[in-house]
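Progress note, sequence design subtask.
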C-alpha cells in the first residue's frame, strides 16, 4: 500500500481545527481509502451516499447526525447538496459533539452553496491521484504514461491500465456528469473532451472548438467549466504585467491526469507516446501538475505576449518570483524568450525542467534541472 502521508497529515490537522473538513478531488483518486485509513486511527461513523441504505438513512439528516459523536464521514456528498444546510445547523449547536469529514468529487463551485452555507465552518483539502513525490523518481515514466489514478497506475500491465481508464471515462460521462443535473449527451461530451486532448498545452480558443462541435462559444465554455470543476481539466490562467507589449489573456488547457490524456489520444504505452506529436505538450502538462502539487503555490500562471515571448509556468512564493520552462530535450538551452521573461517579470530564478537526471547552471539566474530537483533548486524545501 502506498501511504499518502502528506494528505493524511493535512486532513488530520484540518479535522482538529475545523467543524467540517471537505476532502475534494476526482472520483477514484483515493479519497475513500484515505478516509477509511483515518478510521483505523480513530473511531468514525461512515456514510456512503452511493449505498442506497446510507442514502435513505440521511433522509432526515438532523435527526440522525445530531445524535452522533466523534468524527462523521459522509462520502460522495455531492449527490445530496441539501445536506450542507443540515451540517450548518448541527455544528452551530452549543452541545455538538461531532466533527464532519465530507468527501466530494466536484469543486465547491459545482457543489452548489457549499462555500456559502458552511462559510466560516469548512476547510477544504484537495486531493489528487498519485504523484512523483509519493512514488519516487524510478516510477516517473510509468506515472507519466498511466497517470496517477491508483487503479490505473497499479494495474498489472499497460493493457489493463489502458482499459481501466476507458471504463473510467465512460462511467464519468454516463453516470457522474448527469448526477450534477447536467444534461449533455455522453457522445458530445466525449467528442469535446477528445478535442481538448488534441489542444492540450494550447491557449483556449472557444470559437475554433465551438465551430467544430456545432455549438455556440458560450456552450463550449460551459463544457470546459464542467470538466474543470470535476477536476479533469486545469485552466492555467495568464499573468498580466503593466507593460507596453500586448499580452495573451486566454487560459491554457491541460489535463490534470496524463493517463486520461493518453487514453483519449489512444496512446497505449510509453513507446507509442514517444513517437507521437503530443510528446512535448504531454511532458509539459505532466511536469506542471507535479510541480504545482509539490511546491503548492497560492496561485500559478503562465505568461505570454503576442510578440512570442512566453513562460510556461510562473508563481510567486515567499515574496520571490519564479519561472519554469519545460523542454523535452536532453540538452535544453536558454532562449531569447527566457531573457525577456526574466527582464519583464523580474524573476529571481528561472528553471528549465527536462527529462534528464543532471542539474547544471546556465547563468546566475537560469538553471537546468530534472523534475524531481525543482524544489531544491528553488531553495524552497
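Output:
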Amino acid at each position: 500500500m502506498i501511504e499518502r502521508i502528506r494528505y493524511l497529515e493535512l486532513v488530520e490537522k484540518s479535522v482538529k481545527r475545523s467543524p467540517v473538513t471537505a476532502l475534494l478531488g476526482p472520483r477514484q483518486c483515493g479519497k475513500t481509502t484515505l478516509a477509511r485509513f483515518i478510521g483505523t486511527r480513530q473511531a468514525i461513523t461512515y456514510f456512503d451516499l452511493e449505498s442506497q441504505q446510507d442514502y435513505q438513512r440521511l433522509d432526515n439528516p438532523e435527526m440522525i447526525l445530531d445524535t452522533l459523536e466523534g468524527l462523521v464521514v459522509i462520502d460522495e456528498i455531492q449527490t445530496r447538496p441539501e445536506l450542507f444546510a443540515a451540517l450548518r445547523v448541527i455544528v452551530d449547536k452549543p452541545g455538538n459533539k461531532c466533527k464532519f469529514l465530507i468527501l466530494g468529487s466536484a469543486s465547491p463551485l459545482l457543489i452548489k452553496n457549499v462555500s456559502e452555507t458552511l462559510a466560516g465552518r469548512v476547510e477544504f483539502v484537495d486531493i489528487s491521484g498519485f504523484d512523483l513525490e509519493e512514488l519516487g523518481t524510478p516510477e516517473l515514466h510509468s506515472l507519466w504514461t498511466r497517470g496517477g489514478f491508483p487503479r490505473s497506475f497499479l494495474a498489472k500491465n499497460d493493457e489493463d491500465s489502458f482499459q481501466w481508464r476507458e471504463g473510467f471515462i465512460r462511467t464519468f460521462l454516463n453516470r457522474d456528469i448527469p448526477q450534477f443535473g447536467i444534461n449533455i449527451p455522453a457522445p458530445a461530451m466525449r467528442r469535446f473532451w477528445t478535442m481538448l486532448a488534441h489542444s492540450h498545452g494550447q491557449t483556449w480558443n472557444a470559437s475554433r472548438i465551438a465551430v467544430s462541435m456545432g455549438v455556440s462559444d458560450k456552450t463550449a465554455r460551459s463544457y470546459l467549466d464542467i470538466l474543470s470543476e470535476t477536476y479533469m481539466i486545469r485552466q492555467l490562467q495568464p499573468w498580466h504585467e503593466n507593460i507596453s507589449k500586448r499580452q495573451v489573456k486566454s487560459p491554457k488547457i491541460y489535463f490534470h491526469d496524463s493517463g486520461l490524456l493518453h487514453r483519449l489520444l489512444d496512446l497505449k504505452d510509453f513507446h507509442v507516446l514517444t513517437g507521437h506529436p503530443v510528446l512535448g505538450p504531454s511532458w509539459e502538462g505532466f511536469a506542471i501538475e507535479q510541480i504545482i502539487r509539490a511546491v503548492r503555490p497560492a496561485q500559478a500562471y503562465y505568461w505570454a505576449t503576442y510578440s512570442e515571448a512566453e513562460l510556461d509556468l510562473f508563481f510567486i512564493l515567499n515574496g520571490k518570483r519564479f519561472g519554469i520552462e519545460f523542454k523535452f530535450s536532453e540538452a535544453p538551452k536558454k532562449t531569447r524568450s527566457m531573457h525577456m521573461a526574466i527582464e519583464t517579470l523580474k524573476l529571481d530564478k528561472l528553471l528549465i525542467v527536462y527529462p534528464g537526471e543532471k542539474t547544471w547552471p546556465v547563468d546566475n539566474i537560469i538553471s537546468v534541472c530534472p523534475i524531481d530537483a525543482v524544489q531544491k533548486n528553488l531553495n524552497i524545501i
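The CA atoms of residues 258 and 282 lie 7 Å apart. Work on this subtask will continue into the next period as scheduled.
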